[in-house]
Write a structure and sequence with these properties.
heterodimer, A: 228 residues, mainly alpha, Methane Monooxygenase Hydroxylase, Chain G, domain 1, 9 helices, B: 274 residues, 2 domains, two-stranded antiparallel ribbon, 2 strands
Chain lengths: 228, 274
């Protein structure tokens, strides 16, 4: 076998394969910019919860965030046309992180609006990942989003006390306790989700300390009952 | 920690974590969140089990391939009949691996995105390529293209067609590993005084190395590592050829190997099969 044959039969096709893959990745990266822009805007919009007690302002922020999700859905729609069929996990590095954050934001909006934990199906609908031909919402990304939500809520609990909302920490406490109980049911492998879950106990602890401080001073409204 | 605070406040029943405990006490199987997570647990467990199953299958494949590679090294003999017999046996055993071991993996994954599980069998696949390419080299003195090897991974059962995902990267990395075997063979050739094969093998590896140098692949760390090992193997082989040329007339061929072995080239990174 001459050296030309080795190059021609083995390495040239391989380089072609790499080039094709790079092209797809480039296209995905470009679309991700369209998704990451509204993502950042939703993040900043929702930061209002740490500054105000005003329910109207918060629902206005939720509304604005929901509008921004429109662009997110458009982005995933485009992405669905670019990712080759059956190769979700070949390229998902590009959108995994953004998807996790969007899951967190969707869960935060639902928590603020309705007070309960968003299910996976609804999350997929908010992100625009339901009933797609090639894309779907990966369970682990959704779970990662929920863990991020717990962290955000621990901060929210602290800040809501600062502006005098003593009911909110109780609601958060119940919510996160349930979430924690849920996560404890899972048999996690030694992966990133597991590591992230290990940090959940700090969020739980912080929220419990806030509730404790309130209880101690008799600031808990209708002690033991949470207005949902 | 909660105990400390509790004692500090004497009679007060309030403790840190009380709220959480209350919630946990009231949670039962009918809780919406718990129900959701029980579903997630099932889904995650199934995925992990499937992954582990493939890892185990891949491990078996790796072991068998290491044995085949060891067997192929014994073709380094002058007896033509024995050489043929060894090649025949290796061919049969390689066929068993594609037709049984890899088929099992393919049938487990046929309804899933194989890329999700590809890491679970990548080492078995690379080891298989190493053995297969070694066999092809000994048998017909060439390497088949990825396309023709990929045909081995197309299966049909009960009228249903399915295939195993065979990434080109694994093919190339398998070839990189294979050059380590060629290096070993080159030295063994010298040991039995088969000098012409030494040059032939060395040239073959040079061609492969040239191929590796021409590849531009961002984001494949493993490629870089293996190219480095390949470079070292090749350096060792080039030194062998150099020694044959320059000292070949001075000492008997079979003693040359001692000269090379004693030079401090330590490139045994690939553990091989013992």
């Amino acid at each position: 076998m001459s050296s030309d044959n080795i190059l021609e039969n083995i390495f040239t096709p391989f380089q072609e394969c790499i080039n094709n893959e790079q092209d797809v990745r480039e296209e995905i990266r470009n679309i991700m910019k369209d998704i990451e822009k509204p993502l950042r805007e939703i993040v900043t919009t929702l930061q209002i919860i740490h500054r105000t007690h005003n329910g109207e302002e918060i629902s206005a922020a939720c509304f604005a965030a929901r509008e921004l999700f429109e662009s997110v859905r458009a982005g995933y729609e485009k992405l669905d046309g670019v990712v080759p069929a059956g190769q979700y996990y070949r390229y998902n590095d590009h959108w995994r992180f953004a998807t996790q954050r969007l899951c967190f934001l969707a869960a935060l909006i639902i928590f603020l609006e309705k007070g309960f934990l968003v299910d996976k199906e609804t999350t997929a609908q908010i992100l625009g990942l339901h009933e797609k031909s090639r894309l779907h919402l990966d369970l682990e990304d959704y779970l990662m989003g929920l863990l991020n939500l717990a962290t955000e809520l621990s901060r929210f609990a602290v800040n809501s006390v600062t502006y005098g909302d003593y009911n909110r920490p109780l609601q958060i406490s119940k919510f996160v306790a349930e979430l924690n109980a849920g996560f404890r049911l899972l048999n996690l492998k030694n992966d990133s989700l597991r590591k992230r879950f290990d940090a959940l106990k700090y969020d739980v602890k912080k929220i419990e300390e806030v509730v404790y401080d309130l209880s101690l001073r008799g600031l808990v409204p209708n002690r033991g009952e949470v207005v949902e | 920690m909660s105990r400390n605070r509790n004692s500090r406040h004497g009679k007060s029943k309030i403790t840190v974590g009380e709220k959480g405990r209350q919630v946990l006490e009231n949670i039962d199987e009918n809780n919406r969140v718990i129900k959701m997570f029980l579903g997630f647990r099932k889904e995650l467990d199934e995925k992990h089990d499937r992954y582990e199953k493939i890892v185990k299958l891949s491990r078996d494949i790796t072991i068998e391939n290491k044995r085949i590679i060891f067997l192929l090294h014994s073709t380094n003999t002058d007896i033509e009949g024995k050489r043929e017999a060894v090649l025949d046996e290796a061919c049969k055993r390689l066929k068993v691996i594609t037709d049984e071991n890899f088929k099992t993996i393919a049938s487990i994954l046929k309804d899933f995105d194989s890329y999700q599980y590809q890491k679970a069998y990548t080492s078995g696949l690379q080891e298989f390529i190493e053995a297969l390419v070694f066999y092809q080299f000994l048998h017909s003195n060439k390497i088949e293209s990825w396309e023709s090897i990929n045909k081995f991974f197309q299966y049909e059962q009960d009228g249903e067609k399915f295939s195993l995902l065979f990434p080109q990267l694994d093919f190339i990395l398998g070839i990189a590993d294979f050059t380590g075997e060629l290096m070993r063979r080159c030295i063994n050739n010298l040991g039995v005084g088969n000098v012409s094969d030494c040059f032939k093998t060395c040239n073959f590896v040079k061609d492969i190395y040239t191929g590796f140098l021409g590849i531009i692949n961002p984001g494949a760390k493993e490629m870089g590592r293996k190219t480095y090992v390949l470079k070292q193997s090749l350096a060792k082989m080039e030194l062998v050829c150099y020694n044959i040329q320059i000292r070949g007339s001075e000492i008997p061929k079979h003693m040359l190997v001692n000269v090379i072995e004693s030079s401090d080239m330590n490139t045994e990174e690939d553990e091989g099969f013992y």
